[in-house]
Design brief:
2% strand; two-stranded antiparallel sheet; single chain; mainly alpha; 365 residues; 12 helices
Length: 365
Amino acid sequence: MISLIIGIVVSLGVTIVGTPLLIRLVHKLNYGQYIRQDGPKSHLVKRGTPTLGGVVINLAVVLGWGSSALYRFITRGEVPSWSALLVLFAMLSMGMLGFIDDFAKVRKKQSEGLTVKGKFIGQFILATIYAVLALILPTKSGFPSAQAGMSFIEKPFFSFEFAGKAVAIVLFVIWVNFLMTAWTNAINLTDGLDGLAAGSSMITFMGYAVIAFWEFYHLKGSGHEGFAYAVSDPLDLTIIAACTAMACFGFLWYNSNPASIFMGDTGSLALGGLFAAMSIATHTEFLAIILGGLFVIETMSDVIQVGYFKMTRKRVFKMAPIHHHFELKGWPEVKVVIRFWMIELLFVLVALVIFYGDWVARSGL
């Protein structure tokens, strides 16, 4: 518990102290955000707001978890787990891709950075590296960092090993690429209003901290009553999720309306990559659809808008993603953000109830 508190305090401290330092640096370098011209006209006043805030979020998570890992090494001789390093790799690698995208935007002085093809290739390479390492690297616990299959909670309901290990690896790589692409794009689309992505991510990762801690408490071999989980190093996953929630919480102090800084793709892609990796590491890939329900709604609104427009040349929403639709209906930006936070909180609560209900059912209690 002390290691968890250390991680939380350090992550929060890094964002509270580091964000204003980054704001001054970005101002000095004149790295401001460029606003899409087809967006709501009210957003044009945000032009020039410092971006790259995701750098602080990434740093806060790494330093928070690192401080916790150092404490555990000094006091108990525990070494960092591969499971933790892998999910951090997913976060940092996707964050680096987002940083390149953000940097391209400020250098070109426009709202478009990397090409769609360039971003896709980058995501494919990084997700593939993560997928292969998650399957082959040994873990301290003896439980796998990832399962070659699709899981709702814990055990795969569809295994990729039906045709041998080689086919399983290929299918798992495809599956991980889908998850990484889906969740990075989902959180990136949600990052369209001041504080929306940061606040929603804070709520979401608090949910994952609860799930990972429950898996740690009921880990196979722990001796606790009820169903036991075969998950690799869930305490590390708990700490990383909690550190991420606190990093978003601290960042929100400066990102709330009117935002003093944006997280940019550096933050949204990193959070999306981490969310995908957490779903894989905790064996909850399909539960994640409920846990991150707001991100799913944002993504589907964009898909529906584009698809319907191509078929009929008409629009379903005034603008997509859906948070812009409510802005154009006259809702103040702050009202949209707070109500969307409430929706995401409901999704997280539903996911936790389902997760706990599954444990009760499997425990026969």
